[in-house]
Amino acid sequence: MHFIYSAFLFALLTLAIPVIIHLFNFRKFQKVNFSNVQFLKEIQEQQASRRNLKERLILAARLLALFFLVLAFARPYLPGQNSGNTGRQNAVSIFVDNSYSMETLNREGSLLDDAKQKAKEIASAYNINDRFQLLTQDFEGKHQRLLSRDEFNDAVDQVKISAQSRTLQQIINRQQNLLITQPGSIRSAYIISDLQKNMATKPVKTDTSIAVSLIQLKAGNLPNVAVDSVWLLSAVHRPGENEKLVVRLHNYADEKADKVPLKVTINGVQKALGSYTIPARAVQTDTLAFMGLQAGWQQGLVELQDNPVTFDNQFYFSFNVSAEMPVLLIDGGTPNLYLKAVFASDPFFAAQRVPDGNVDYAGLNSLPIVVISDVKAISTGLAQQLKTYVAKGGTLVVFPAIDIDLANYRAFLQSMNAAWPEKLITEATKVSALNRQSPVFKNVFENFPDNPDLPVVKKYYQLNTSRGGQDNLMKLTGGQTFWAGYTSGRGKVYVAAVPLDETYSNLPRHALFVPTLFRIALLSGHDLPLFYTLGEDETLEIPPVQVTEKQLLKLVKGNQSTIPDVRQQEGSTMLYLSDQLHETGIYTLKKQDSTLATLAFNDNRSESDMSYLSQTSLKQLMPASTTLLTGSNASLKGIVTETNFGTQLWKLCIILALIFLAAEILLIRYFNPGKQAIKQPV
């Protein structure tokens, strides 16, 4: 047994007072003279030994009452798990999970309401002078401070459902960041959550000086189907053309989902419908087609009808339908008539030709495709800018010049992980095969002849392909690469083995030349992502935008307006959100009154899996010192009190003191042992 206020034990010296009173309070008999004994009616006789018994019992009752009263003030307790430093101020961090999964119902209502109630119970188990931190999934700056108990309870009442989702390690790290600033206090951390499996996939590390407790709230396993992701098959979107949207559905339940209805709307207009049956714990993809889009930004929504879990039934996406596609043609000073004729044949392509010495580097990143031809040597500045352009997602097509500088092209193309011309081969040959599995040719040919007419080659540059990983579009008879694509960063580089000159091959006039270039251009979409994820995509990269103090960029949704932190990087503008967005949906990126882009934000789908960590899993993932509780415990306050302060005995001491005081009163009034009445005749 231990005492919180052990100094009160000195008051036990007061036990000597009743003893002293007992020893010196001797009863003195008074002598009374009677003139006649006939007036003495009755004589009470009492034996001395029995009278002493009563006095000793009264003394014992007084001593015990005083003893337990002193103990009550000293606050005795039996040590608990975390009660080694009882008596010092406590700094307590309490995490209330307010993610979407906490909307699930149990017998107390929603899990969030239950979690808020339990947070208040924990706070009530501590002393009035202890300090508390409230933490939620939002990780708001206002919660990174300690509050009084009343302030804490008010803050708990204001907690609402959030789209954020954090791991156990992130939560504990956040709690420890504040608690370590309180070195003189007893530091404790509580996590109140349903503890889904996605919250911890590897062992969690904690500070050994901080007592961590997990309170798991449990709800029934609910069936749930969600849209995990979507993507469009076309990189470039043209007005009025057919679009194909791939939808990825995930059944998170342990039972089959039958005939789940789905619809796709674009700008509020329904474009496609579907109904799907998905096996248990399975992922299914399907392609939905629609058309008739006008030029401009498109606001898309995929919507499921799936109950009772509804927070992940909607998935937003956005994309831009371009009225035209800009193409930059870079040459050595003389326009290439073949390239000019190719892109002039379709009004969708807006081709601009510039010599290699007059390229606008600042505008490169706004272009989806750049074509270089007939340039003898690439300047160092242009080479560096093109490398950055490709790394950020651009597409570069390279046709060597007739009088090429081989060393210069090697340095230029090798830096982008692409093949480079090694030497000129003057032996005549022809293209022997097309790679119909390449994205450029896939699903292009309805019927492919057995003996197709392929380009004839008179001479060519042998390409060094030692890097590997190329997408061979065409191969020569001997297996050498004739035209291939290479991935570099987020972009693509296509290198041809011949210049666009008929003395090298008939490629410039061949029937394959135009559709191949068109397909490369249409696959070179340099657009923004279809969607972003709240809590994960905190940095957005957009084409370069010049801003001033009076011309700020802002994200607008209805009446909500957010101003991100804007920084300029080489060839792009970076937007830093820093947890400023908390609602899913479509946001418009504006510069004053002009619309620059439309951006879609969705929830993290990790909350969709309604599977929970078991007690066994938690013991494996958490340190051995962690206390594991369940939401079904009747009195969480009592458990927390016993864990942190031990079993409190002061109430028992008060009760015992009152019992012995009552015993003393009863002994004095009603306990008269050994009395004997003697009748004397008159």
Describe the protein in words.
This protein is α+β, with helices and mostly antiparallel strands. Strands 18-17-19-20-27-26-25-22-23 form a nine-stranded mixed sheet, sandwiched between helices. Strands 7-4-8-9-36 form a five-stranded parallel sheet, sandwiched between helices. It has a five-stranded mixed sheet with strand order 28-35-34-30-31, with no helix packed on it. β5 (105-106) and β6 form a beta hairpin. The radius of gyration is 42 Å and the shape is elongated. Mean pLDDT is 87; it is low at 42-46.
Number of helices: 12
Radius of gyration: 42 Å
Number of strands: 38
Please outline the major beta sheet: 9 strands, mixed
- Average pLDDT confidence is 87
Biggest sheet: strand arrangement: 18-17-19-20-27-26-25-22-23
What proportion strand?
25-35%
Shape: elongated
Computed structural class: alpha+beta
Q: Note the gap between the termini.
A: 65 Å
Q: List segments where confidence is low: pLDDT < 50 over at least 5 consecutive residues.
A: 42-46
Helix content: 10-25%
